């Protein structure tokens, strides 16, 4: 089961992604993640959600193998829809979502983190969008919530990564800690939020989303339209296969 929900302490729900080897999710995996976050947030006894992962890294995005196995566009549409639903679930969750990030955070991982309320990262965490190298586009919406505009563009065009310390410098990562301390730090922040009156915190979440200058749902779906165009043009299929061939050769 790649998505695990737990209640480590009163008022705090953890949603863990555990899909070896790299936490790349299938279309159904993204939907399951969305459902877990939404279910947690609508539980009156839940005051805050911690989104975390097991394994080598936080998230490697979409399972490209699932897309390549499909001779049509069903898997691609499923991945597009699944990502959009999962990112929206984090953003629209009635309670704050804390992302606890370790290792790599790529593609869809940036979509999740960019829509989270608080980001805590280990000192080995890196963030980036390799989309252009895969013949796709997407999650610039969410990367732009983590870094300034021109840095976002440079990272996007070059498919480069930034580390947790750089994001801490820009103010988008709340704390950077040794990996062994990541879960405890995320839970400490969660405890502080959970101790507040959840009625006030839930209202605060709505209020903050309501004044957000970025329409994250619409802008991300706009990006996805170009991904689909690249697939129709035959550009993306070759790029994905070259990546997978390189992975298999290692």
Characterise this structure.
The chain is of the alpha/beta class and 250 residues long. The protein has a single domain (3-180, 198-249), classed as Alpha-Beta Complex (2-enoyl-CoA Hydratase, Chain A, domain 1). 51% of the residues lie in helices and 16% in strands. The protein is built from 11 helices and 9 strands. The strands form 2 sheets. It has a 6-stranded mixed beta sheet with strand order 1-2-3-4-6-9, with helices on both faces. It has a 3-stranded mixed beta sheet with strand order 5-7-8. Strand 1 and strand 2 (12-17) form a beta hairpin. Helix 1 (27-42) packs parallel to helix 3 (74-92) and helix 3 runs antiparallel to helix 10 (216-232). The longest helix has 19 residues, at 74-92. It is globular and about 50 Å long. The mean pLDDT is 95. It holds the Pfam family ECH_1. InterPro entries: ClpP/crotonase-like_dom_sf, Ech1-like, Enoyl-CoA_hydra/iso. Belongs to the enoyl-CoA hydratase/isomerase family.
């Amino acid at each position: 089961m790649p998505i695990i929900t737990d209640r480590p302490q009163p008022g705090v729900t953890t949603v863990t992604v555990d899909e070896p080897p790299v936490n790349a999710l299938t279309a159904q995996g993204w939907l399951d993640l969305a459902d877990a976050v939404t279910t947690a947030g609508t539980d009156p006894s839940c005051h805050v959600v911690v989104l975390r992962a097991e394994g080598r890294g936080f998230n490697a995005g979409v399972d490209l193998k699932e897309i390549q196995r499909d001779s049509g566009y069903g898997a691609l549409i499923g991945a597009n829809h699944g990502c959009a639903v999962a990112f929206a679930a984090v953003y629209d969750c009635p309670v704050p979502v804390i992302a606890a990030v370790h290792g790599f955070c790529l593609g869809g991982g940036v979509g999740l983190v960019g829509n989270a309320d608080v980001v805590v990262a280990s000192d080995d965490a890196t963030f980036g969008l390799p989309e252009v190298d895969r013949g796709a586009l997407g999650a610039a919406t969410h990367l732009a919530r983590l870094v300034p505009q021109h840095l976002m563009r440079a990272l996007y065009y070059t498919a480069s990564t930034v580390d947790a310390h750089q994001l801490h410098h820009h103010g988008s990562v709340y704390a950077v800690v040794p990996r062994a301390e990541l879960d405890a730090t995320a839970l400490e922040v969660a405890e502080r939020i959970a101790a507040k009156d959840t009625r006030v915190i839930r209202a605060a979440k709505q209020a903050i989303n309501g004044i957000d200058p970025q329409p994250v749902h619409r802008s991300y779906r706009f990006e996805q339209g170009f991904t689909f165009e690249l697939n129709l043009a035959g550009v993306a299929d070759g790029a994905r296969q070259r990546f997978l061939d390189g992975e298999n050769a290692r």
